[in-house]
Design a protein that fits this description.
Length: about 150
């Protein structure tokens, strides 16, 4: 039998019997019960499934779980809790940067990745960073305000 795949998620080593070609998103949600990353398009186009891999934003629906060996995966669950929200999560709550909320996982993780490399992004930097994260409710004004609030 094939050995389990070991994935380092949110600081813990987790094991999955999945085939290495399985999209990371499915392993996170189905095997590990981490429902922060969402299934949107499944084609790498909407950003709902976003995670951080070694701090960089990645689309987990098109990332084979086998490719994460030796890397650190962070999901929304790894950022903060309800009682101790991450500053970016807090900013999105305060600015109500969501309507249905389906894109929120990707918006927040993409913002965390942006601020890690660009702590004081301009409006243009933020639009550029979030341009491949789709929000179908049209909440873009509040999302921009949320990112700006996270900066200060
Ligand atoms: Fe992965 Fe849309 S679900 S990019």
């Amino acid at each position: 039998a094939r050995a389990d795949i070991v994935v380092k998620v949110n600081g813990a080593e987790m094991r999955s019997p999945a085939d290495p070609a399985t999209p990371l998103l499915h392993v996170l949600r189905n095997d590990f019960g981490l429902n922060g990353p969402k299934y949107g398009c499944g084609l790498g186009e909407c950003g709902a499934c976003m995670v951080l891999v070694d701090g960089k934003a990645a689309r987990s629906c098109v990332l084979p779980v086998g490719a994460t060996a030796g890397h650190a995966v962070t999901t929304l669950e790894g950022l903060g809790t309800v009682d101790a929200a991450h500053p970016v999560q807090r900013a999105f709550i305060e600015e109500q940067g969501a309507q249905c909320g389906y894109c929120l996982n990707g918006m927040i993780l993409r913002t965390v990745a942006l601020l890690a490399v660009n702590p004081h992004p301009s409006d243009r930097d933020i639009r550029e960073a979030l341009r491949f994260n789709l929000c179908r409710c049209g909440t873009h004004v509040e999302i921009l305000a949320s990112v700006h609030r996270a900066v200060v």
